[in-house]
Amino acid sequence: MTSEPGSGRTVPGVGWVLFATAGAGVAGYGIQVVASATLDDPGLYIAFGTFWSAMYVMVTLLSGIQNAVTRAVRPAGTAREDGVAGAADLAVLAAVVVGALAVLAGSVVVIDGTDGPVGGAAGWMLLAGTGYVGVTLVGGVLQGLQRWRAVAGLTLTDSAVRTLLVVSALLMTAARPQLFAAMALPFLVAAVAVGLATWSRGRGRFTLDVGRGELVRQVLGAVVASSALGVMVSGMPAVMAAVSRDTTPQRLAELVMVTSLARAPLIVPILALQGFLLVRFRDGHDRAVQVLRRGGSLILVVTVVAAGAAAAVGPAVLDTVTGGSYAIEPWFVAGVVVGAGLLGVQVLVGSALLGRSHHRDYVTMWTVSAVATVLLVLVPGSLGARSLLSMIGGPLAGMAIAAVLRRVAAADRGSSPAGR
């Protein structure tokens, strides 16, 4: 049984979301294994991998929409008199975002042509973007209404359809357009299927607690924040590669592999719970600080234990898995895990800021973190040391500026006539 609004039963909701996230992760990994085994043509494999990577970079950028919608959605009757007004506002928002994606895709086609490697994929990327906008809106509404089982269903439907289509296309040695379509279409299928299943039964009526203009502003800010987060998570290997001029390919491969593998167990579950955390902070007026302290302490304790374990067994595991091709120092593995834990705490802090409607502080925190992440990796030293400094210093810089901004805001309230 999942938690419903007002029931107070929140742990089952976490279970559904984590189960769906784990299932989607296994499915995505399976697709990559099948692709590596069936795509003998290097050019086709590169096209597949590039489209997959670019699609999920876009997903990261657009995920801010879901966070903003989650915060704004309330059950019908709690914010406006008619839930249809909320649906109309989201429809306008969707039209604006899809229109912007269409302009971008059209520009790519004009530059590269329909037969070019980039222009030929632009239409399918537009389809993926359009479908994912639908996913962010449906998912945001469902999270705002605390319908966690339906949220899990959205994630599982998307991953199941994508696994079926992509694996089928790979086994049939499909050409590029078929592979692109198989990767792009599931977002739209999942959004339509889960949306119809929810609202055709008369469930899920909602309103928004902000007007249309404010909603657009909040969404834009959330997209900026999710873009910054994308730089720190998905973009970190690319950042490392861009500043690796004095590093051998072998060493770069070792650092990137460990960075990708060691951070995922901590970061992925916390990112999956952003919607859940947003709702907890939005609705838990009296317990927000308590949730923040307990959640942050829990993440830090898990991080310390995980870092120690990673330092102890990580290098040996890497040596075994790669057949001795790669080697890594214990201090680097432990440092990567510490950076992941701090990033997890920052996600928790960000959820608190956005859930409590501190939008400007939320965007500023993530922007400062992303800038610090890039700048710190440019300091003198070995790539391993600079990368750790970047992964640890970025989150710390962002959370520090967020703490300063909240203290300044509290001081301003205290000195105002209303606060005296």
UniProtKB/TrEMBL annotation:
Keywords: Cell membrane, Membrane, Transmembrane, Transmembrane helix. It is a multi-pass membrane protein. The keyword Membrane applies. InterPro entries: Poly_Biosynth_Transport. GO terms for cellular component: plasma membrane. It is found in: Cell membrane. Its main location: membrane. The chain crosses the membrane at residues 12-31, 43-65, 86-111, 123-142, 154-173, 179-199, 219-243, 255-278, 298-318, 330-355, 362-381, 387-405. This is Uncharacterized protein. It comes from Aeromicrobium marinum DSM 15272.
